[in-house]
Design goal:
- Four copies of one chain form a homotetramer.
- The first copy, chain A, contains 19 helices and ten strands.
- Chain A is of the alpha/beta class.
- In chain A, the strands form four sheets. In chain A, strands 3-4-5 form a three-stranded parallel β-sheet, sandwiched between helices. In chain A, strands 8-9-10 form a three-stranded antiparallel β-sheet.
- In chain A, strand 1, helix 2 and strand 2 form a beta-alpha-beta unit.
- The longest helix of chain A has 24 residues.
- Chains A and D meet through helix 9, helix 11, helix 15, helix 16 and helix 17 of A and helix 9, helix 11, helix 15, helix 16 and helix 17 of D.
């Protein structure tokens, strides 16, 4: 709301519809009331509608934004704890957790797109449901809905922090991003001299890497590795390039019941308490801890850029078109792109150096494979995705993890119903106690 | 000068060096004096230096712009008249004439780049010497000088005129360009609604195609052909898609000694008379007739965009990087690109529809082939380029044309000296009387 | 039949079904009777069935071969004479004539494939209906029938004649072919030394080019052009590289009513007289004049290679798979390929040199465009194909030719019925007298 | 020698030169004497020359075969034991061990190629020095020596065993291979019916995978994973798809001092005892245990195929040319190829399915990166290769492993001399006792 209020002059919103499912009704009412209070405290006359019927909200919409978690934070707890209980990283965006989030989410987003085709065929879908890149690939490439832009706040964060790391201000650096969501790389130039300062930042990252995300343990990259690249990784690359270190830290959190999911769940509980306060009509401080900072601003800015044809360069998930010639031309990539009235125009990045190229190609392959599994319910494809995902230990152990997670997420995986029944019959059960209890409670 | 004066606030030029060769000394002095008068009439204290020694001018330059014609307008007369005397289009940019312009120019630009490597290694080379795309390919891909941007005023003209054709103003349309210099295509969108209006413009082109260039006969494209494309051609495509009509018109001009070269030569003569007038300190009206309108403004704007890191989207010749995935990733293409302090960032265009793709691929092949001939003096490669160029009639007649043009341009083709001697020994002579006389006068 | 009789030991045929349409009934009976006489004169007991119902023939077939001409030789007369009457090459495979042959044939082959899906889903379709490459592209890429191989006798001829040109025997040279049907290139190596002898053959072609086809005027290629290539063209490239010379010769034939179509029609008439002779039970000498020599042998050999998994290397139209990386991976190309029980395995050729690459890319683009027109009845796409085909003069004249040919072939172009009616209403008529008379006779 | 004796009729060898380095003098003499005895026992008069001067041997050679191990089996012991001592797979072909083998070997093979350019410019280099694919890439792509074919016995083994697994004989199946050395995939067809039997073999692999190599632990692949693929992996893929299981087994061997290197060293010792026996003039049984079975036969067969232009289809490392369109066109790939007098003609494989494609692309990237390190001595690039190699644990631990291995292999890594000195100064030492002792003995 803050983002929209701030931009009202250029983006004169008429109405806002907030949608949630039955299980989120209370949350919806709390958030909806706060949202209306925020507008009421502004000079603008905007009505916030609340509904549990998404079709009512979609009808004639101009912009649709999606951010939801099928299975709520309890599902995330499973996404993180079950892999860790097998000695593997959960990584809720591209690891075993992320793949399961996709398995749960893809059928739902497909349904939303089908509704949009019918109810608001000219609307833009701004997605920041994670795994954002894979969801955007599902929407654009699999469902054929071109008017979609995928967002993520990681590049926003980088572009805010890296100038500071060099003692510069926003606007003093030029960035060129390319790769995949939570797996992108970037080159940096001084905006006043044109000089490539990518390696200068690498050196600064050894002192204090402010560009990392709050939700990622701040382990230092290896300088020699950074210098081998002609670009910089993103915070999430720690899981791939510092797997050993990240594993150790996450196992500690696991033991203390302080996985990210568990922490966030507690913060959210507190946040909703605050939101209920009728005196509150701006965002509380605490939200910062929730993570996803800048997310909402990125969404507002994207809508604003489309509506006003601003040509602003943002880092978004969109159709490749050749911008990253190392990936298929019709794959979804996360790249610097100009946002105009007719969509995102990606800036061509050119070939990546081999070692960067290879990892990006592998991750895109993993994405395509798990998306196929999600949309068809093909168990073998899901296993195949697990067996090539660098965050999963490969072998029988990967299959055991897959099977246990299928059983754990049974409620939200109708496309795998038959397979899950078979697994249960074979006696597959959830080992991690916390996760198992959630299952037992029907969560 | 007007362009620089207008932009002085953001682009605080200190000195300008104008360079010409010995043969252009008088022209240099006339133009140089006028240039200085223009600055003197401005509030700014800028010194215009004149020199016949390009190394003196290059020393420590920040920006170098090149626009020259090896052999002057007399060479262009040969480029146009000799092909026409064989019943073929000369087309001084991509046809037989253009290929010969490249053969004469490539060795010279190579020398300039070598000087720049030594004397101003951080300078940007803004080229608008024609054939602009092929020269840029020579500079970047063959000579390895990356800090180069190739310019052309055709897209500028299109972006100014097409809004008017729809009754709109500049800024009301979004453009996406891709292709090669003088062989680019574009898609157009309404900047307020996002609607693709490419075909709307096609219909308007049937009434009055204001987007065409002054120097190209204004023959109407075939509507049904335009509607088969998912983009629009540029003015020069008339030579390829309306070859028959263009041929007839050019043959008429040929007969009347009103080829473009001959007309321009007369206009230039008049222009230089005007330039001499010490009272003149702004551009005379007549310059409009010369063609190349907006050229100088495009150059100033590019320099300004680089210097100020403006991110302005311009249509330039630059490295492909995948922006046009139907062409090699390291080929030079003419595309919409953001201009920043570290160069041009091309906007990815994606695959072209087959018929457009095929022509662009053929023309790039022709460019690569004639460039190889230009830099190595390989006669067979020159012939091969002639035999695939769509503006040349294929067969023995193409070879006869090539041979005659080699003899006619002997003075400026040292790399073919041996072959030309052999041709002369075999009795190859220039048939067109006008062209032959120029040769006889050592021009 | 000769080909099958010769191979009976390895290819034990049980029955042969010959199919024709009602108009070909008499031909079918004459040819069928001769075919049965040939088998009867052999030691083998094979029954030749004749039918006008293709579904009867297709039922449970193992191999289907297609060679037909929609509209018979009268249509070819129009394909050749109408373009020539406009001063353009007809070129009944890839020129205006070839494009029209495709427009007439694509819907018919599509119907055959649909019948095959139903009646003989495991059969192989061996196509030598021209334009063979485009028909194969239609079958495999558009209709999705993968078990198809396209044949042409041009490479067979080259591989027989080029050894002789160097004073060598069959088997003394290795060939690598790649490109498109009637538009392929090849490299040649000495099979005993590994030496690349491509240019040696180029020199020999200046003396006597035995590798040319009987149906193509034997104009000499330009040696300097051949030497610029790193491969050799095929006979049909004369139309593209010696357009001027070929035009002149064809115009002479046109004037004398000796176009290829008219000559062949006369030869066929004589042949069928001979075929009727009950004493005849082998192929008559005269067939050589008909052209298409080796065609039948190539077909038998392909079937034999598939049936016996021979791995024989043949030059066929098949899916690219990357063999020619300059064309789309799923395009149909004509390449050297191993023929096995599971189909054609193309031999990777690698990148072509630019000038060769550009022409092949253009022709593939032309093929894709006219195929789209053929299958959708999209007039604009047909025009677009005409405006990029190098054998057509570009401009309004191309459209006039297209329109006249549409009207001339009305009977066989149901997909363009509406457009043709519109053209007739506008008064478009066939100008060439011979062609017009055929139309008036309902042929 | 057996392979050559067997093929003498078609491959009439005149002389054979065996070369070794000073350290291998005794081995050379033993093997050389045995080799001569084998020829003497044959009907053919062939002289086996022995030399420590490779230039003497290379002079005027027709075929050069290379199989050597820089640092002998002691280096392999380090390649395997040091990674295992860090809890990682050594994998002496593509893992940490294989990367180090490349680092030691690339400079040596480069020197050999330089000698060949001078001494036998028309010779063919048949390489089976491991890592065979990377060495071939170094020779062809980096050193520019095109007349090179890389060999491996893994595909030979597969093509011998898989028919047996289906109860068929050699020749009953058709194979299509593509990928990289020790990282290739294949599709299988019934040679009599054309049927794709790839998945049938997958099922049989669950019973008894005879296609695996003797030197690889026979852990079973996961059936569900195999069925997700449209092709089959090779034995080495166990390291990538069953990492967990392979790790456990190798750690057991490590503890028992039965790593492959240690076992082979013992077998070799015994073999050389046998070889010394003047009565021995054929290969002893024991050689089978050495592994590398069929290697020598593959080499003889390749030479024979080249010499006789046989067109035999073999699986070799050669230039891609587009055969595997998912990898760069000029990369070295291991594919089915026809072997002719002018080299290997790869069979186009087409796109791989995503999950297979991604892994192959990653491994090629790893290869390119470590090759760059090997030829330039760039430490950062070596680290980068370690950090993306799926067999290495990523993070600081990878760097520690790299550093320790650099120190351990110091003697054979002149290109890293400076860096190694720096590491030693920092106190980096070899931890594994066995490996350290070898170092201390100067081995």
């Amino acid at each position: 709301m803050q983002g929209f209020i701030k931009r009202y002059n250029t983006l004169p919103i008429r109405e806002i519809w907030l949608v949630d499912i039955e299980d989120g009704k209370e949350k919806l009412e709390i958030v909806g009331a706060l949202a209306q209070r925020m507008w009421d405290a502004s000079p603008y006359d905007v009505k916030v509608h609340l509904t549990l019927d998404r079709r009512e909200a979609l009808k004639d919409a101009d912009f649709v934004t999606t951010q939801f978690r099928v299975g709520l934070l309890n599902a995330r707890i499973k996404d993180e704890r079950i892999p860790l209980s097998h000695g593997m990283l959960g990584q809720e965006t591209n690891g075993a957790g992320g793949m399961f989030k996709l398995l749960r989410t893809a059928p739902v987003i497909k349904g939303i797109v089908e509704d949009m085709k019918e109810l608001c065929p000219n609307a833009w879908l701004i997605n920041f449901t994670n795994p954002s890149g894979m969801i955007t690939e599902t929407v654009i490439r699999q469902c054929g809905w071109k008017r979609c832009i995928g967002l993520c706040n990681v590049p926003v964060n980088i572009m805010l922090q890296e100038p500071a790391m060099l003692g510069l201000k926003e606007g003093d650096l030029n960035f060129e991003f390319a790769g995949l969501n939570h797996f992108h790389f970037h080159r940096v130039y001084n905006a006043h001299t044109g000089e490539n300062v990518t390696h200068q930042i690498a050196y600064k990252m050894m002192e204090d890497d402010k560009s990392n995300m709050q939700n990622i343990q701040n382990e230092k990259f290896l300088l020699d590795h950074l210098l081998a690249m002609d670009c910089l990784p993103c915070g999430y690359h720690r899981y791939y390039y510092l797997t050993d270190e990240m594993m150790k830290k996450e196992l500690e959190d696991f033991a203390k019941h302080e996985t990210r999911a568990e922490s966030v769940k507690e913060v959210e509980r507190q946040l909703f308490e605050l939101y209920k306060d009728p005196a509150l009509h701006e965002m509380p401080e605490l939200l910062g801890k929730r993570g996803g900072k800048y997310y909402s601003d990125a969404a507002c800015e994207t809508i604003n850029a489309i509506y006003n044809n601003s040509g602003k360069v943002m880092v978004v998930s969109t159709e490749n078109r050749g911008a990253l010639p190392d990936l298929p031309e019709d794959a979804i990539v996360e790249v610097s792109a100009r946002i105009t009235r007719h969509g995102a125009e990606p800036l061509a990045f050119g070939h990546m150096e081999p070692a960067v190229r290879g990892m990006v190609q592998l991750m895109k392959a993993m994405e395509e494979t798990i998306i196929e599994a999600a949309l068809t319910g093909n168990y073998n494809k899901a296993l195949e995705a697990f067996e090539i995902n660098p965050l999963v230990k490969h072998g029988k152990c990967a299959q055991e993890l897959l099977d246990e997670m299928l059983v754990a997420h049974k409620k939200y995986l109708p496309q795998f119903a038959e397979k899950i029944a078979e697994l249960e019959a074979k006696g597959v059960t959830v080992q991690d106690e916390t996760a198992r209890k959630l299952c037992e409670q029907g969560l």
